[in-house]
Specification:
Blueprint: E1 5-6, H1 16-22, E2 27-33, E3 38-42, E4 47-51, H2 55-68, E5 77-81, E6 84-88, E7 93-94, H3 104-121, E8 145-148, E9 157-159, E10 165-168, E11 175-178, H4 180-193, H5 200-207, H6 213-230
Antiparallel strand pairs: 1-2, 2-3, 3-4, 4-6, 5-6, 7-9, 8-11, 9-10
Protein name: Aminoglycoside phosphotransferase APH(3')
GO biological process, one term: response to antibiotic
Keywords: Antibiotic resistance, ATP-binding, Kinase, Magnesium, Metal-binding, Nucleotide-binding, Transferase
Length: about 240
Protein backbone atom coordinates (compact mmCIF):
# COMPACT_ATOMS: atom_id res chain seq x y z
CA UNK A 1 0.00 0.00 0.00
CA UNK A 2 1.23 3.46 -0.92
CA UNK A 3 4.51 2.26 -2.39
CA UNK A 4 5.58 2.30 -6.00
CA UNK A 5 5.56 -1.10 -7.68
CA UNK A 6 7.09 -2.24 -10.93
CA UNK A 7 8.01 -5.24 -13.00
CA UNK A 8 11.44 -6.67 -12.10
CA UNK A 9 14.20 -5.54 -14.42
CA UNK A 10 16.76 -8.14 -13.41
CA UNK A 11 17.26 -11.30 -11.36
CA UNK A 12 15.57 -11.29 -7.94
CA UNK A 13 16.83 -13.58 -5.15
CA UNK A 14 14.28 -16.17 -4.10
CA UNK A 15 13.76 -16.21 -0.31
CA UNK A 16 13.97 -19.54 1.48
CA UNK A 17 10.28 -19.49 2.36
CA UNK A 18 9.34 -19.08 -1.30
CA UNK A 19 11.64 -21.91 -2.38
CA UNK A 20 10.16 -24.12 0.32
CA UNK A 21 6.60 -23.41 -0.80
CA UNK A 22 7.49 -23.91 -4.44
CA UNK A 23 9.02 -27.30 -3.65
CA UNK A 24 10.78 -27.61 -7.00
CA UNK A 25 8.15 -25.84 -9.09
CA UNK A 26 9.08 -22.84 -11.20
CA UNK A 27 9.39 -19.49 -9.42
CA UNK A 28 9.36 -16.05 -11.04
CA UNK A 29 9.38 -12.60 -9.46
CA UNK A 30 6.50 -10.60 -10.95
CA UNK A 31 6.29 -7.43 -8.81
CA UNK A 32 8.76 -5.49 -6.69
CA UNK A 33 8.44 -2.34 -4.59
CA UNK A 34 11.08 0.14 -3.53
CA UNK A 35 11.10 -1.05 0.09
CA UNK A 36 12.05 -4.60 -0.81
CA UNK A 37 8.67 -6.27 -1.03
CA UNK A 38 8.35 -8.82 -3.83
CA UNK A 39 5.60 -10.97 -5.28
CA UNK A 40 6.61 -14.33 -6.74
CA UNK A 41 4.56 -16.46 -9.12
CA UNK A 42 4.82 -20.20 -8.57
CA UNK A 43 4.09 -22.74 -11.28
CA UNK A 44 3.22 -20.06 -13.88
CA UNK A 45 0.75 -18.32 -11.60
CA UNK A 46 -1.04 -21.28 -10.05
CA UNK A 47 0.03 -19.79 -6.72
CA UNK A 48 1.69 -16.61 -5.48
CA UNK A 49 3.85 -15.69 -2.52
CA UNK A 50 4.19 -12.09 -1.38
CA UNK A 51 7.13 -11.18 0.82
CA UNK A 52 7.58 -7.92 2.68
CA UNK A 53 10.01 -6.70 5.31
CA UNK A 54 7.06 -4.96 6.98
CA UNK A 55 5.23 -7.98 8.40
CA UNK A 56 2.28 -5.83 9.47
CA UNK A 57 1.47 -5.07 5.83
CA UNK A 58 0.78 -8.70 4.99
CA UNK A 59 -0.67 -9.57 8.40
CA UNK A 60 -3.39 -6.99 7.78
CA UNK A 61 -4.19 -8.45 4.38
CA UNK A 62 -4.83 -12.01 5.53
CA UNK A 63 -8.14 -11.44 7.39
CA UNK A 64 -9.30 -8.98 4.75
CA UNK A 65 -8.80 -11.45 1.92
CA UNK A 66 -10.58 -14.16 3.87
CA UNK A 67 -13.55 -11.93 4.60
CA UNK A 68 -13.82 -10.32 1.17
CA UNK A 69 -13.44 -13.68 -0.56
CA UNK A 70 -16.98 -14.60 0.50
CA UNK A 71 -18.35 -11.79 -1.63
CA UNK A 72 -15.88 -10.90 -4.41
CA UNK A 73 -13.13 -12.41 -6.59
CA UNK A 74 -9.93 -11.99 -4.57
CA UNK A 75 -6.99 -14.37 -3.97
CA UNK A 76 -7.64 -17.27 -1.60
CA UNK A 77 -5.23 -17.44 1.33
CA UNK A 78 -3.35 -20.74 1.51
CA UNK A 79 -0.90 -19.90 4.31
CA UNK A 80 0.91 -16.99 5.89
CA UNK A 81 3.69 -16.20 8.30
CA UNK A 82 5.88 -13.31 9.43
CA UNK A 83 6.68 -11.31 6.29
CA UNK A 84 5.04 -13.65 3.77
CA UNK A 85 1.63 -14.50 2.31
CA UNK A 86 0.84 -17.52 0.15
CA UNK A 87 -2.28 -17.40 -2.01
CA UNK A 88 -3.92 -19.35 -4.79
CA UNK A 89 -3.65 -17.80 -8.22
CA UNK A 90 -6.52 -15.68 -9.48
CA UNK A 91 -7.25 -15.80 -13.19
CA UNK A 92 -6.42 -12.59 -15.01
CA UNK A 93 -3.64 -10.06 -15.60
CA UNK A 94 -2.99 -6.75 -13.91
CA UNK A 95 -4.53 -3.74 -15.62
CA UNK A 96 -0.97 -2.47 -16.16
CA UNK A 97 0.31 -5.71 -17.65
CA UNK A 98 2.05 -5.26 -20.99
CA UNK A 99 -0.99 -6.89 -22.57
CA UNK A 100 -2.97 -3.70 -21.87
CA UNK A 101 -0.30 -1.04 -22.42
CA UNK A 102 -1.84 0.07 -25.71
CA UNK A 103 -5.45 -0.36 -24.58
CA UNK A 104 -5.90 2.14 -21.75
CA UNK A 105 -9.62 2.51 -22.38
CA UNK A 106 -10.12 -1.22 -21.94
CA UNK A 107 -8.13 -1.17 -18.72
CA UNK A 108 -9.92 1.90 -17.37
CA UNK A 109 -13.32 0.42 -18.13
CA UNK A 110 -12.48 -2.81 -16.32
CA UNK A 111 -11.21 -0.91 -13.28
CA UNK A 112 -14.44 1.07 -13.09
CA UNK A 113 -16.59 -2.02 -13.46
CA UNK A 114 -14.52 -3.86 -10.88
CA UNK A 115 -14.74 -1.14 -8.26
CA UNK A 116 -18.50 -0.85 -8.71
CA UNK A 117 -18.89 -4.59 -8.26
CA UNK A 118 -16.68 -4.56 -5.19
CA UNK A 119 -18.55 -1.65 -3.62
CA UNK A 120 -21.91 -3.24 -4.34
CA UNK A 121 -20.91 -6.69 -3.10
CA UNK A 122 -19.11 -6.06 0.19
CA UNK A 123 -21.60 -5.49 3.04
CA UNK A 124 -20.79 -2.35 5.01
CA UNK A 125 -22.84 -3.40 8.04
CA UNK A 126 -20.94 -6.68 8.36
CA UNK A 127 -17.45 -5.33 7.68
CA UNK A 128 -15.16 -6.07 10.66
CA UNK A 129 -12.56 -3.48 9.61
CA UNK A 130 -12.34 0.25 10.17
CA UNK A 131 -11.47 2.88 7.61
CA UNK A 132 -8.37 2.58 5.37
CA UNK A 133 -5.30 3.83 7.24
CA UNK A 134 -4.83 6.86 5.00
CA UNK A 135 -8.43 8.12 5.21
CA UNK A 136 -8.75 10.86 7.88
CA UNK A 137 -11.18 10.31 10.74
CA UNK A 138 -12.70 13.71 10.03
CA UNK A 139 -13.28 13.11 6.33
CA UNK A 140 -16.30 14.93 4.84
CA UNK A 141 -19.71 13.29 4.93
CA UNK A 142 -19.72 10.42 2.44
CA UNK A 143 -21.42 10.52 -0.92
CA UNK A 144 -21.92 6.78 -0.48
CA UNK A 145 -20.34 4.71 2.26
CA UNK A 146 -18.90 1.43 0.99
CA UNK A 147 -16.25 -1.10 1.85
CA UNK A 148 -13.34 0.36 -0.09
CA UNK A 149 -10.47 -1.53 -1.63
CA UNK A 150 -8.23 0.98 0.12
CA UNK A 151 -5.45 0.92 -2.49
CA UNK A 152 -7.38 1.16 -5.73
CA UNK A 153 -4.39 1.92 -7.97
CA UNK A 154 -4.65 0.44 -11.45
CA UNK A 155 -2.23 -2.48 -10.88
CA UNK A 156 -4.56 -3.95 -8.26
CA UNK A 157 -7.36 -4.73 -10.72
CA UNK A 158 -7.07 -7.90 -12.81
CA UNK A 159 -8.47 -8.22 -16.33
CA UNK A 160 -9.59 -11.35 -18.13
CA UNK A 161 -8.18 -12.06 -21.59
CA UNK A 162 -11.25 -10.47 -23.18
CA UNK A 163 -10.65 -7.23 -21.29
CA UNK A 164 -13.40 -7.73 -18.75
CA UNK A 165 -12.98 -7.36 -15.00
CA UNK A 166 -11.55 -10.49 -13.34
CA UNK A 167 -10.67 -9.67 -9.73
CA UNK A 168 -8.83 -7.57 -7.17
CA UNK A 169 -5.52 -8.03 -5.37
CA UNK A 170 -3.59 -6.26 -2.59
CA UNK A 171 -6.42 -5.64 -0.15
CA UNK A 172 -4.28 -4.96 2.90
CA UNK A 173 -5.95 -1.59 3.56
CA UNK A 174 -9.54 -2.59 2.82
CA UNK A 175 -12.01 -0.70 5.01
CA UNK A 176 -15.16 1.39 5.26
CA UNK A 177 -15.10 4.85 3.67
CA UNK A 178 -16.67 7.06 1.02
CA UNK A 179 -16.56 5.42 -2.40
CA UNK A 180 -14.55 8.42 -3.59
CA UNK A 181 -11.61 7.25 -1.49
CA UNK A 182 -11.24 4.52 -4.09
CA UNK A 183 -12.40 6.44 -7.15
CA UNK A 184 -10.13 9.42 -6.55
CA UNK A 185 -7.04 7.23 -6.35
CA UNK A 186 -8.07 4.87 -9.15
CA UNK A 187 -8.46 7.78 -11.57
CA UNK A 188 -5.24 9.39 -10.33
CA UNK A 189 -3.27 6.22 -10.94
CA UNK A 190 -4.34 6.05 -14.58
CA UNK A 191 -2.07 9.00 -15.25
CA UNK A 192 0.90 7.18 -13.73
CA UNK A 193 0.32 3.96 -15.61
CA UNK A 194 -1.07 5.27 -18.89
CA UNK A 195 0.66 8.65 -19.32
CA UNK A 196 -0.73 10.73 -22.12
CA UNK A 197 -4.09 8.95 -22.14
CA UNK A 198 -6.94 10.82 -20.43
CA UNK A 199 -9.23 7.91 -19.58
CA UNK A 200 -10.46 8.89 -16.11
CA UNK A 201 -13.87 9.60 -17.62
CA UNK A 202 -14.00 6.08 -19.03
CA UNK A 203 -13.41 4.64 -15.57
CA UNK A 204 -16.09 6.80 -13.95
CA UNK A 205 -18.59 6.07 -16.75
CA UNK A 206 -18.01 2.35 -16.28
CA UNK A 207 -18.51 2.74 -12.55
CA UNK A 208 -21.68 4.72 -13.19
CA UNK A 209 -20.97 8.07 -11.56
CA UNK A 210 -20.27 11.63 -12.62
CA UNK A 211 -17.02 13.27 -11.50
CA UNK A 212 -17.13 14.90 -8.05
CA UNK A 213 -14.30 17.43 -8.21
CA UNK A 214 -14.40 18.32 -4.51
CA UNK A 215 -14.26 14.75 -3.26
CA UNK A 216 -11.62 13.79 -5.80
CA UNK A 217 -9.44 16.69 -4.66
CA UNK A 218 -9.96 15.90 -0.98
CA UNK A 219 -9.09 12.20 -1.19
CA UNK A 220 -6.08 12.82 -3.40
CA UNK A 221 -4.88 15.37 -0.83
CA UNK A 222 -5.42 12.85 1.99
CA UNK A 223 -3.54 10.16 0.04
CA UNK A 224 -0.58 12.45 -0.60
CA UNK A 225 -0.54 13.78 2.95
CA UNK A 226 -0.48 10.30 4.45
CA UNK A 227 2.10 9.14 1.95
CA UNK A 228 4.42 12.04 2.68
CA UNK A 229 4.31 11.03 6.31
CA UNK A 230 5.53 7.58 5.31
CA UNK A 231 8.30 9.09 3.20
CA UNK A 232 7.42 6.92 0.22
CA UNK A 233 5.90 7.74 -3.18
CA UNK A 234 2.33 6.70 -3.81
CA UNK A 235 1.56 3.89 -6.21
Amino acid sequence: MLRSVSFPTGPVPVPDVVARIADGRTVRAVWVNELGGTTFAIDSGAEYVKTDALSSVLAAEVPRLRWAGSFAPVPRVLASGPGWLHTAGLAGRSAVDRRWTDEPRVAARAIGVGLRRLHDALPVADCPFGRPTWVPADAPAADRTVVCHGDACAPNTLLADDGGFAGHVDLGDLGVADRWADLAIATLSLGWNFPGDDVAGVLLDAYGVAPDADRIAYYRWAWDAFDEGLGAPAG
